[in-house]
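Hi support team,

I submitted a single chain yesterday and got back a structure, but I'm not sure I'm reading the token output correctly. Could someone confirm the output below corresponds to the sequence I sent? I've pasted both exactly as they appear in my results page.

Thanks,
R.
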Amino acid sequence: MTEDERVPAGIDPTVPSVARMYDFYLGGKDNFASDRAAAEKIIELVPSIKDIAKDNRDFLIRVVRMLAAAGIRQFVDVGTGLPTQQNVHQVALEAAPESRVVYVDKDPIVLVHARALLADNPSTVVINADMTEPGSLLDHPELRAHLDLSKPVAVLLFAILHFVPDAGAAAKIVASLSAPLVPGS
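Hi R., thanks for writing in. Yes, this is the structure output for that exact sequence:
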């Protein structure tokens, strides 16, 4: 992205975004100069961060394939980030065409991009929700309309829980998200 491109309302391209920085680490194009500058500072501190991001993406792909092979057909990707290659829905639908995916994020630019990319895909829904409010996430009307919560659901929390500064709070989020799900989830 360039700063002279039309920027959606509510997006400040001068303020770095974790989602856009992650996109930069993966070699994506959906990032601004502020994101690249911040990402470069992180690279100075953690030279392997690009490899870590790619390894995380590869792991997500393997996990979704394994879950689909085990019979899971419903996925909730929390903190999805910007759409990139081999997204959860692509991997899940390749393995099991009847799969359903809900993408969850609270970053406005992620929501705009994901909704535009997936507008014509009836197997996916993109919702605006915050993992720190797990009840509102699982009770979201679009999630409830899209998934059958009487069947197993895989809740994916990739590269997101480390943004919760308190380990106890992170554990409560995981417990709150998993408690209402049926066995096999």
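A quick pointer for reading it: The first strand starts at residue 74 and ends at 78. Let us know if anything else looks off.

Best,
Support desk
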